[in-house]
């Protein structure tokens, strides 16, 4: 359409990953020659490198940054990747899925045929949730007595009650019946003197006794330890709560996911679309092409392959294999 500033997708086009004749099912033709000239003139020639090598480097850089982001986000929140599955979604998610999941100790890696609409699917089926927050000033010095704990508990209760009234009013105005609304109390806790707090789901709805304050602090300590390890704890500094929150939610009806009969490992002949040259590891290789919509549960595809749909492209590198389960979920695995 006239743009001459190269993008990551231009790199995927000239290196054979993205089919210029199948974008949006062929409704929009991509100009491979224009993409090549833009990359060559603006990036490759000034650096004195081959346009295809540069493009592969860009793709590898994107994968590296996404992979490090996944590692960092889970580590900061105190989670282990080994406890989770990674879903590649969005139009470009499956195209880079093998790259940004490579080497991560995950339970599994997958995508779905409707990857481009997966966010909308999630929004439509996820429970209806509002979050409400307000500032407060709660200090709990180390070794606080019961009187201090109850005084601070009074401030917490007052803040939660105010937020709950606002939440309930707005949820009902938006058509959610009162009996369907679930309220969850949240506190943002830190050690005194720290700049960042930790979001803690309160184990109690109200502070009715000193023991309730102890339960809230214990929940903070448990989560803090999970994120920063036990040696980082500093209870002697005391505790500070500068913000409170309420989560108001209502359960939505959930979609019924269809289950299919498993078929042969070999994909049907009409799912095979031919071959295409793909630039991988500084060389051109022949990749098998498949129509994602024609693949069946039970089918297995070894890389190097590209699985195409009108709204997404799924790259299966050499050394990887895709298995399609009874729900038409595409699982990416190491080829054994």
3D structure, described in words:
- With 336 residues, the chain is an alpha+beta fold.
- The chain folds into 2 domains: 1-119 and 261-336, no CATH class; 127-250, no CATH class.
- The protein contains 7 helices and 13 strands.
- It has helices at 8-14, 32-47, 51-76, 93-101, 118-125, 146-173, 210-228, and strands spanning 85-87, 108-111, 128-140, 182-191, 198-201, 239-250, 272-280, 283-291, 300-302, 305-309, 312-316, 320-324, 330-334.
- The strands form 3 sheets. The chain has a 5-stranded mixed sheet, with helices on one face. Strands 3-6-4-5 form a 4-stranded antiparallel sheet, with helices on one face. Strands 7-8-10-11 form a 4-stranded mixed sheet.
- α1 crosses α3 (51-76).
- The protein is elongated and about 75 Å long.
- It starts with 7 loop residues before the first helix and ends with a strand.
- The mean pLDDT is 94.
Order of helices and strands: HHHEHEHEHEEHEEEEEEEE
Compute the separation of the termini in Å.
44 Å
Q: How much is the radius of gyration in Å? A: 26 Å
- Tally of domains: 2
Instruction: Tell me, briefly, the overall form.
Output: elongated
Specify the biggest β-sheet. Answer: 5 strands, mixed
């Amino acid at each position: 359409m006239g743009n001459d500033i190269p993008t990551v997708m231009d790199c995927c086009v000239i290196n054979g990953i993205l089919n210029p004749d199948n974008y949006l099912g062929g409704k929009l033709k991509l100009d491979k020659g224009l993409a090549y000239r833009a990359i060559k003139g603006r990036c490759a020639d000034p650096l004195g490198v081959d346009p295809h090598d540069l493009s592969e480097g860009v793709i590898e850089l994107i994968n590296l940054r996404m992979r490090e982001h996944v590692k960092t986000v889970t580590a900061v929140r105190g989670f282990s990747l080994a406890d989770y599955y990674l879903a590649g979604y969005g139009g470009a998610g499956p195209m880079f899925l093998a790259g940004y999941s490579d080497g991560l100790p995950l339970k599994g890696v997958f995508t779905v045929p409707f990857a481009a609409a997966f966010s909308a699917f999630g929004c439509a089926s996820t429970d209806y949730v509002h979050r409400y927050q307000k500032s407060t000033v709660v200090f709990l010095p180390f070794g606080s007595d019961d009187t201090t704990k109850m005084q601070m508990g009074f401030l917490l209760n007052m803040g939660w009650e105010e937020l709950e009234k606002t939440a309930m009013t707005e949820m009902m105005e938006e058509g959610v019946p009162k009996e369907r609304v679930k309220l969850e109390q949240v506190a943002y806790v830190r050690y005194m003197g720290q700049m960042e707090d930790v979001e803690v789901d309160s184990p109690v709805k109200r502070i009715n006794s000193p023991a309730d304050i102890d339960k809230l602090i214990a929940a903070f300590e448990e989560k803090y330890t999970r994120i920063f390890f036990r040696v980082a704890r500093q209870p002697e500094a005391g505790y500070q709560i500068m913000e409170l929150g309420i989560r108001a939610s209502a359960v939505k009806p959930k979609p019924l996911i269809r289950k299919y009969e498993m078929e042969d490992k070999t994909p049907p002949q009409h799912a095979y679309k031919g071959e295409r040259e793909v630039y991988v590891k500084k060389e051109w290789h022949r990749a098998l092409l498949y129509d994602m919509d024609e693949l069946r549960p039970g089918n297995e595809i070894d890389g190097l392959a590209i699985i195409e749909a009108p709204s997404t492209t799924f790259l299966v590198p050499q050394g990887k294999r895709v298995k399609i389960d009874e729900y038409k979920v595409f699982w990416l695995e190491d080829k054994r």
